[in-house]
Amino acid sequence: MEFESVIGLEVHAQLKTKTKIFCGCSTAFGAPPNTQVCPVCLGMPGVLPVLNRKVVDYALKMAFATHCTVAGESQWARKNYFYPDLPKGYQISQFALPIAEHGHIVVQLENGAKRVGITRIHMEEDAGKLNHDSGGPFSMVDLNRTGVPLIEIVSEPDMRSPEEAGAYLRQIHALVRYLEICDGNMEEGSFRCDANISIRPQGQEEFGTRTEIKNLNSFKHVEKAIYYEIYRHREIIEDGGKVVQETRLWDPDRNQTFSMRGKEEAHDYRYFPEPDLLPLVIDNPWMEAIQATLPELPEAKKARFEKQYELPAYDAQLLTTSRDLADYFETAAGLCPDPKLASNWIMTALLGVLNTTGKTIDQSPVSAKDLAELVCLIKDNTISGKIAKTVFEAMVETGKNPKTIVEEKGLVQVTDLSAISAVIDAVVAENPGQAAEYKSGKTKLMGFFVGQVMKKTKGQANPNIVNEVLRKKLEE
Ligand code: ADP
Ligand code: MG
Ligand code: ZN
Predict the structure, then answer these.
(1) How confident is the model at residue 216 (pLDDT cuts 50, 70, 90)?
(2) How many other CB atoms are found less than 10 A from the CB of residue 454?
(3) Which ligand is nearest the CA of 42, by number?
(4) To 5 degrees, how large is the angle CA 69–CA 124–CA 6?
(5) For a pocket test of ligand 1, which of 3, 7, 10, 199 has the largest count of ligand atoms closer than 8 A to its C-beta?
(6) How many Cβ atoms sit within 10 Å of the Cβ of residue 149?
(7) Mean pLDDT for the chain overall
(8) How far apart are CA 475 and CA 466, in angstroms?
(9) Residue 466's pLDDT is what?
């Protein structure tokens, strides 16, 4: 039987506010345990939460960027459960009336664009962190993260493959980074994802039973875990069994998921409206003020790149995957006469180097200005495309600018006709046999002659001139 997989993602993004959602404690990452806490985030009795307005601003930005409908009045809710990292015994979240609903984003896939629905976005506070590696027969708790603001972005079950889920997650990640509301650091846990997965026979409308994989913290893990889970569901169903609805975890060392707990239902959490906070009222001026701050988002930027720089859709898509990369390209394109050539060097040479060295664009060993200078040197025939590769490698290695490298290594392209002609004369004289063969019709030997000339000039002769002069000399 053919199965179709159905995937919905819940993404938690930590908001980049300076202070926590309901108190003035710092949100900075990496401080010694339990140094960024106060009676409010420790859940002491007799204290009251005070909402951080910036959290709402940031949630609104994401709501608008994902085409959601924003609620003029939303509500805080208590989600009750016991866990050692949750000192109050409940998490302040939103439930029945979230800040935003009914949105969507457009995800670029290999075979075209796909619209994925956003069910809702709500705000909530993060829990603390347990450290199980303390060495003793106990765990340590760090409450610095308690009360750090999060938004949860819940998708519709619209994705049909691990790749689609990966593309959706990357797009959400790009959006929070474009909006500068979350640092997107998955290793530090500021951007994490739960994946819900089910399968159903091809053509069936009703969804199958889903399982949920919690706390996936890299793009690679998300796709691998979903793959594994689809495979596991299929095995169970093909063996005549039934998938059990439950919460699972991903074990990256063994490349498999394992059961964590049975699925909890909403009523298990005894949600009720938070009595310590007023309903959240967002009026039109507030919404408009936030809308006015929205930056150019990936889709719009992509369209502009295609038009303004006459880039192919593929280039525009790739260069706008992150705001930093797009900015890098624009700086380079603004300084050189050929944006497409700049794009080529960024997409192949530069991204290649960043990939192999595990660096991001803002850690690039080559500045946008130097890359533009390299493109200029190619365009004005100072160096050939081939020599440019050597220069680029030296730029990566030494951090020097291309002009300096070209001068130091004497790599300037030879375009002097008489100098090139002299070399060609020598090469033809040294290879009388091949010259005769060429004249009798074996024109494929052209490549041989070009190679000889390039060798003698250490690759510095302008290839167009070499070709032209060679043809003349051999045919005279
Ligand atoms: P919770 O997981 O907190 O119970 P929901 O019931 O709203 O919350 O569902 C959360 C996620 O599960 C959403 O992203 C939704 O798209 C997805 N989802 C719901 N039903 C299915 C299903 N049958 N298969 C796959 N994903 C599903
Ligand atoms: Mg869930
Ligand atoms: Zn605090």
Answers:
(1) very high
(2) 17
(3) 3
(4) 65
(5) 10
(6) 27
(7) 92
(8) 14
(9) 84
Q: Which two tokens stand for residue 52?
A: 């951080």
Edge-first strand order for the sheet with 272-273 is 90-93, 77-80, 272-273
Closest CA to 221 of 291, 302, 280, 165: 165
- Rounded CA separation 97/396 (Å): 52
Other Cβ atoms closer than 10 A to 3:
17
Strands (E), 252-408: 256-262, 272-273, 280-281
pLDDT in tens, 22-74: 999 999 998 999 999 999 999 999 999 999 999 999 999 999 999 999 999 99
103 Cβ contact list (under 8 Å, min separation 6): 63, 66, 67, 68, 69, 117, 118, 121
* Phi, psi (rounded to 5 degrees) for 259: -70, 135
Pairing of strands 112-125, 149-155: antiparallel
Q: Which two tokens stand for residue 29?
A: 């990452």
Q: Count other C-beta atoms under 10 Å from residue 130's C-beta.
A: 13
Percent of the chain with pLDDT over 90: 72
- Report the candidate in 290, 286, 333 with the shortest Cα–Cα distance to residue 310: 333
Please name every residue paired with 134 in a beta bridge, in sequence order, or none if there are none. Answer: none
CA-nearest of 191, 253, 255, 259 to 219 is 191
Asked if residues 38 and 23 have their Cβ atoms less than 8 Å apart, the reply is: yes
Cα(204) to centroid(ligand 3), Å: 50
Beta bridge partners of 193: 11, 216
What pairing do the DSSP bridges indicate for beta strands 246-251 and 211-216? parallel
pTM of the full structure: 0.84
What does the block give as tokens for 156? Answer: 């519709």
Q: Where are the alpha helices (DSSP H) in 205-311?
A: 219-238, 284-293, 298-308
The atom number, within ligand 1, closest to the CA of 209 reads 23
List the Cα angle 186/189/191 in 5-degree steps: 55
Q: Which residues contact 35 (CB under 8 A, 6 or more apart)?
A: 144
Rounded to whole angstroms, the Cα distance separating 302 from 320 reads 6
CB atoms within 10 A of CB 235: 10
Ligand nearest to the CA of 147: 3
CA–CA separation, 462 vs 300, rounded Å? 40
Q: Residues enclosing ligand 1, CB less than 6 A?
A: 6-10, 154-157, 196-198, 207, 210, 212
How far is 155 from 121, CA to CA, in rounded Å?
9
Q: Which positions ≥6 away from 138 have C-beta within 8 Å?
A: none
Query: C-alpha 303: how far from its chain's center?
Result: 19
Q: Express each pLDDT in 224-266 by its tens digit.
A: 999 999 999 999 999 999 999 999 999 999 999 998 877 777 7
